[in-house]
Write a structure and sequence with these properties.
Length: 184
């Protein structure tokens, strides 16, 4: 074989052997940038998942409470609400006209219970999740506006708010608020 042919074969083998060091370094750098970006998303995803789970549980509790309140006669002032198999007594309006219970205000989605004020005793409760004792408890508050005519209530408007007592969440923006109405 001529020396020129040997040289060409050697060059062809050298070119076919693999990547240069510079190509490997650039590929490694790009891979690291992608991994770091993906790793930064994991805590955000975990936080959002936790908040979503908290909101979902609060929504279920608020729906259960509202359903049970609306099933009560208008003359009832205290109802026993059962959530997760646990009984809770809560006020659902007084015999006279006007507002009772937790103060009601306006939020971005409609009527809410104002969480900045202290809880009104007897108009709500705190639920500790028996399935997950380490999770923050769910606070439920009830506000009622009663209309009276002829010596008795003729209608009641209920606002039920529920949210997890999670210190990382704002109770005003993370509460689930339901607005219900019952009349004679």
């Amino acid at each position: 074989m001529a020396s020129g042919q040997r040289f060409l074969k050697r060059e062809a083998r050298r070119a076919a052997k693999g990547f240069t060091l510079m190509e490997v370094m650039i590929a490694t750098l790009l891979l690291l940038v992608g991994l770091v970006a993906a790793a930064e998303l994991v805590p955000v995803a975990v936080t959002r998942n936790t908040q979503s789970r908290n909101d979902s549980k609060a929504a279920v509790v608020a729906e259960q409470v509202m359903d049970q309140i609306l099933s009560q006669p208008l003359s009832t002032t205290i109802a026993t609400i059962t959530v997760d198999g646990l009984p809770f007594a809560t006020g659902i309006g007084g015999p006279g006209a006007g507002a009772a219970g937790s103060p009601i205000g306006t939020g971005t989605g409609g009527q809410i219970v104002l969480t900045g004020a202290a809880a009104v005793p007897g108009f709500g409760f705190v639920l500790f999740d028996p399935a997950n004792p380490s999770s923050p408890p769910i606070e439920v508050r009830v506000g009622v506006i009663t209309t009276v005519a002829g010596g008795g209530p003729v209608s009641k408007r209920f606002v039920v708010s529920a949210w997890r007592r999670d210190p990382t969440q704002d109770p005003i923006n993370s509460q689930v608020a339901l607005d219900g109405f019952k009349q004679r």
